[in-house]
Structures are given as C-alpha cells and as structure tokens.
Amino acid sequence: MYLVANIDVEICASKSCKLCTQYCPEANTIQYSEAMGTDRGFKYGTAYIAVDRCKGCALCVWVCDTMAKNNAIKMIMIDQLPLAAVTDNIRYEEKTTVAVLSNPMIVIGN
Amino acid sequence: MSLDYVKFSGGFEKFMPKEYRDMVEHGPFGKKISVSQMGSFKEILEEHPMCAGCAMTLFIRLAIIAFPNPEDTITVGTAGCGRLAISQAAIPFVYGNYGDQNGVASGLSRGLRLRFGDKPKDVVVMAGDGGTADIGFQQVLHSWFRKERFTTIMLDNEVYGNTGGQESGMTNRGAVLKMAPLGKKFEKMDMLQMAKVAGCAYVATVVPNNPRRVESVIKKAVLIAREVGSTYIQAYTSCNIEYAIPTDKVMEDAKTVENDRYQFTEYVSDEAKQYLTERYGYKDYLPKAAAPAAAIPNKT
Lengths: 110, 300
Hints:
The complex is a heterodimer. Chain A has helices at about 10-15, 20-25, 35-40, 60-65, 105-110, and strands at about 5, 30-35, 45-50, 75, 90-95, 95-100.
C-alpha cells in the first residue's frame, strides 16, 4: 500500500484558500468543488484529491500546514480511505468540478 | 494550430474517450484562465511520468496554464527531464536533437510567420540547464543575437538530473553530486547577463513557489516575443532526487533558494515596455505620475 493525500473537508470548506490546487506538481489531481462543500452546509467549496493520480509527495501537506496554516491535509494509506474521488468519476462543470466518491481500492483494482 | 484542432469531427462526439471530451468542453482552449482557477478546469498537461514532488513539473504546469493562446502555441524541447512532461501536453511539441532546440525554434517561428502572417503563433522553448547553457549554448546565444522572436525558458535544476547527476554549467561552485564527487570547480554561468548582452527584450528569473508571478512572467515573455524580440526566463526548478530534497520540503527549498540566490529579477527593454503598454494595456510601465505639487494657497 502507499500513501496518498487526504483533505479534511470540514477545515478546507471553512477556509477555501485553494493554495494546494496551485502547488501540486500533478495536473488535475487536487481538484476544487463548490458543491462538495456547500452541499454539506459549509461556507465554501472544498478541494479534494483524485487519489489515482496522487504520487504521494506530500508537497501539499507542507503548503497547507506552513503557507496556509490550515493543517487540513494528511497523508493516509490508500486502503484506509473510506471514500475518495478517482479521475473517471470527476465531472467538469462551469468553473467547478463534481466528484462521485467511491472506494478507491475497488475502482483502481478494476 | 487553431481552435479547429480541438474540436470533435462531426458525428464522433459520443465515441470519444472522456478525457478527450473533457479537454474539448472544459479545457482552457479559447478561454481566459488563470492560476486561481486551477483545479476547476481540464488542464493541457496531465499524467506525466515525472518524479513525485518535482518542482520542474509544477513550473511546467504553471507555464502551460499561463500561455496566452494555448491553441496557437508550439513548444520545443530537447533531451532532459522537462520534455517528459511537456511532450505529454495536448499542444504540439517539437523535439529538437540535443542542443538544437533554439535552432529548430528559429526555423519554426519564421515558418509560422510566413504561413500565418500577423496572426500570432507562439513558439516556446522549454529546455533544461544542460540543453540551454551547455550543449545548446551556441544555438541559444545565436538565436538571441539574431533577435529571433520566440521565448526561451530554462528549467534550471542545476544538474544533469536525467542521466544520474553530472555537473552542468549552471551548477553552483562547490556542489558535490553523484557523478561530480570532487565538487564543481567553476562558478555558475551568468546566463541572465548574457541574455541582456545578446539583446533579449525580456529577461526574468522566477521560482515556482509563487504561481501568480510565474503566470505573469510567462505571459509577458510570450507576448513580447510575438513582435519585439527574443525573451528569456530562467526558472529554478530543483531536482529533489539529485539534491536529495525530501519531497514535502521542495517548496521550502525553493523559498530558501529564492531568498538566497534566485531573487525575482525582471528586465524589460524600453521597446518591450512600450509594446506591452500600447498593445496589451499593461499599466505597470506607464510613466509614474508626478508627485502632487505642494498645495498652492488660494489667492482669493
């Protein structure tokens, strides 16, 4: 198993700094969704990780902890993630994205 | 080389893979996008084979987002890590033989001007420090002396990262590397000064820990290269493998190096300033308004 980044929606959706989306070396890996935050009653949208593309460098963890001081991103073993976004389940909309969360082990395994 | 090549052929929409449909419908082609929108549109560069946490990849990602007209842009590269990512992007990429990239780009940019006239077609060279300052040095410098109108971007990781860590002209003096165990004996080449001497219209250094600055620098360089002359950007893009930087500390290293020896510098020639102001409405280069004169007492 390997580590991937995981974003705490509660913290992220209350700050919504979007810094991590600008610092990830992998394109379209840290995505941003308005609906995934506001639908759950938070003030803003949230960033989330397309876990099948995350190479586990933890650069975003440094950005979130040190630059943004939000401490919302933690590295977690991919099989420990309850539900996560994978690239095939991400839909692009006007100025935002929406992801259908699923068990990454099953999706990537297929 | 236009928006036509990012459209579906009639009747094929439903057969195209999701990736392709996303690129056509939600990609940056024909739209104005900026780094603040990252994570909410389909990017031109995706799924590259670069190492985890590579700062060069981050820079390339930002650079491609910053292209003013990605649908009218061709990138040129050469051997090195950078081309592994640039060649994955959904815009045309030309691979010059090692060191040839600025020669290839010269011909390409002249050919595009003959074919398309005044319609802007941007050529952007992105090559490593070895390709630009060592092996391609002669062609790079000559393209600048000839005032060829395209942008040269050096991805300066200060080492030959792709071949196991040999020293390059851009390696710092004293740096000990896997394939340079005695330490480098000479100073780092001053390519910025050489670019100015050779007559580049725009010369800048940048570090990818400031995405907005990268965006602004690349935009200016590409726009100036359309008409005024050669432009050169030198970007510090650390090699976390050869310099043994832990991947989560890559941005910390970028920040340290930026404060130490890679401060942001920007040289814009007078002609380029005038061009940016008149053609693209840049306000930064307008003559500064004189300080308000001391209030003259009213005589009445």
